[in-house]
Backbone:
């Protein structure tokens, strides 16, 4: 049986059809990929929040944003590595790994939707609520009076109180992985809201659940916002 050869016009028509189908499928594939990353971020935050709850139960203190191992040594994420990777020696920046000369968060400490250029050391994927963290100014000295939370059972509205959340700090040589209000979550030119169609952030709450919040629902005055610290 003789097979008819394609004419040039017929070949161009086939190529055009394939191109049209690809252009229709690619957005759907991108949406599916981003949705998978959204789900992964939720899982990561829930895992980190679980570590934090375990840490507070064991140590009766919420870690400081920095200075947990000495003067400006030991970020809050470093203290949780004992649960994520028990054999890890707890040192400054131990929650990161170095690639291409920069530090990147390990495992659940990184948001899959981060572009990888949040700052010069690539670590500010997640931040801690400054109203919850122990306040030692990063110097490693933790007076008893500065320990804000010893037991999460004391928090009056645990399902409404933010604990850990998305944060984006651009072009900073000193990443500040903490915020006290909406403005502190997004700092520097190019900082972006990574979730809810680039209009919000994921929060892990004191009771352990994770939910996305539109940026317009995130208070700009943390001291007068239940999400941050109003009822304490």
Residues:
């Amino acid at each position: 049986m003789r097979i008819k050869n394609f004419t040039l016009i017929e070949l161009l028509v086939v190529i055009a059809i394939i191109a049209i189908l690809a252009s229709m499928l690619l957005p759907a594939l991108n949406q599916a990929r981003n949705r998978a990353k959204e789900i992964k971020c939720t899982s990561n935050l829930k895992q980190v929040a679980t570590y934090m709850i375990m840490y507070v139960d064991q140590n009766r203190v919420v870690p400081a944003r920095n200075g947990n191992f000495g003067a400006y040594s030991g970020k809050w994420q470093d203290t949780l590595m004992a649960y994520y990777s028990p054999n890890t020696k707890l040192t400054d920046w131990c929650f990161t790994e170095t690639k291409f000369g920069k530090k990147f968060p390990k495992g659940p400490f990184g948001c899959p939707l981060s572009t990888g250029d949040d700052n010069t050391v690539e670590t500010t994927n997640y931040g801690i609520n400054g109203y919850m963290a122990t306040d030692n100014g990063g110097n490693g000295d933790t007076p008893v009076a500065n320990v804000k939370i010893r037991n999460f059972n004391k928090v009056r509205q645990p399902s409404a109180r933010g604990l850990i959340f998305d944060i984006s700090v651009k072009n900073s040589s000193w990443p500040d992985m903490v915020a006290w209000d909406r403005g502190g979550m997004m700092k520097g030119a190019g900082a972006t809201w990574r979730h809810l169609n680039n209009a919000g952030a994921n929060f892990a709450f004191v009771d352990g659940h994770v939910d996305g919040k539109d940026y317009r629902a995130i208070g700009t005055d943390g001291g007068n916002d239940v999400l941050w610290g109003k009822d304490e």
Summary: The mean pLDDT is 85. The chain has three helices and nine strands. Residues 6-215 form one domain.
